[in-house]
Amino acid sequence: MDSIIYLDHAATSWPKPPEVMEAMKLAMDEAGANPGRGSHRMAVNASRVLFNTRRALAQLFAVHNPNDIVLTSNTTEALNLAIKGYLNEGDHVIATMIEHNSVRRPLEYLKRTKGIRVDYISVDTEGEVNLKEVERAFNQNTRLVVCSHSSNLLGSILPIKEIGELAARYGAVLLVDAAQSAGMIPIDVVEMNIGMLAFPGHKGLLGPQGTGGLYIAPDIELKPLMHGGTGSQSNALEQPNIRPDRYEAGTPNTIGYAGLQAGVNKVLEWTPEKIYHHEWELAQQMMEGLSSIRGITILGPDLGKPRTGLVSFIAEEKDASELAFILDRKYGIAVRAGYHCTPLAHMAAGTENTGAVRASVGLWTTKKDIDSIVHAIAEIQS
Ligand SMILES: Cc1ncc(COP(=O)(O)O)c(C=O)c1O
């Protein structure tokens, strides 16, 4: 790859650590068989890969039993399994205005087809929720609270522990969309009252694309999204009741999960606390630089406040896509522009007609990279 300043980590992290690529190569060579479907040594190696991946994830999220983690192909699949598997006709759901379409579309689908009811709690222009408003939304049919841990447009971080306490008090389950937080903000599913946690493997956990997962608390029962072969209870017509088999039909992405395991081990080594600090500092540097440029408006929490490592902004008299195009072609800087699959968050930020440019940092991003984007934007605006 020609030199590129990659500031699109919120979409998927790049490059992956060398250990991830080595683990995938090793798995291809030594664990390339079908896990759980045979007792020969390579099938056993493949099963071990999946078990060790679950174990590393369990350590990261303080999950007691690794088998409560279902491996999926991305966050979207995990969210669909959680939402469609848990909700029934007539249920009431509380969500927020920062939800991604991976939450909103399954909810809206169930609204149309199953008559569920959904309240989207408003957020302010910085993407923060008011807990009193969340509490007021509960009623006797509320079974689920779905909440993005962090906005993929604004970078704001929601008070998950407090929302989890409210959900527990009103007898509802909390489902957290950790697409923008897993690996980058510490998560403890027990301490935070999280009933289900949907996460990507390919963003903050540094694994390859095609990986993700869903933690399901032991007392939560879901309808499987997929029915099919699991390698277990082959004579039964029903999907097996044992975890994780119940929710994992078909041949899995063993090679990808080998990479994910290596990525999670890297995160455990660096720790989410340190990664958060690194990314927060870079985001602050970018905000400081951009705020001194004429015509640039930065979205999300103000300087000095908690936020993840993404900074979205709009430029007066310049289309977001045009700006991203110039950054790529003239300066070799990769950012994302447009609507970021989160229309309600754009409404909260007042950017529903403009979209926004989003620059997001990762583990390898340096202060020099931030200087480069600030300098490029200043030149484009002058
Ligand atoms: C907040 C949020 N939720 C869900 C998703 C979907 O993630 P995936 O691409 O892993 O399905 C994204 C992707 O960017 C996201 O930012």
Strand count, sense and closure of the main sheet? 7 strands, mixed
Measured between the Cα atoms of the first and last residue, the distance is: 30 Å
Number of helices: 11
| Count of β-strands | 13
Determine the fraction of residues in helical runs and give it as a percent range.
25-40%
Ligand list: pyridoxal-5'-phosphate
List SSEs in N-to-C order.
EHHEHEHEHEHEEEHHEEHEEHEH
The Rg value, from CA coordinates, equals 21 Å
Molecular shape? globular
**Average of pLDDT:** 96
Which structural category do the helix and sheet elements fall into?
alpha/beta
**Proportion of β residues?**
5-15%
Question: Which consecutive residue ranges, at least 5 long each, have pLDDT under 50?
Answer: none
Strand order of the largest sheet: 2-8-7-6-5-3-4
Structural description of this entry:
The protein is an alpha/beta fold. It is 38% helix and 15% strand. The chain is built from 11 helices and 13 strands. It has helices at 18-30, 41-61, 75-86, 101-114, 131-136, 160-169, 254-270, 272-291, 320-331, 343-349, 367-381, and strands spanning 5-6, 69-72, 92-96, 117-121, 142-148, 173-177, 196-200, 212-216, 296-298, 310-315, 333-334, 336-338, 356-360. The mean pLDDT is 96. The structure holds pyridoxal-5'-phosphate (PLP). The site of pyridoxal-5'-phosphate has 13 residues, from helix 3.
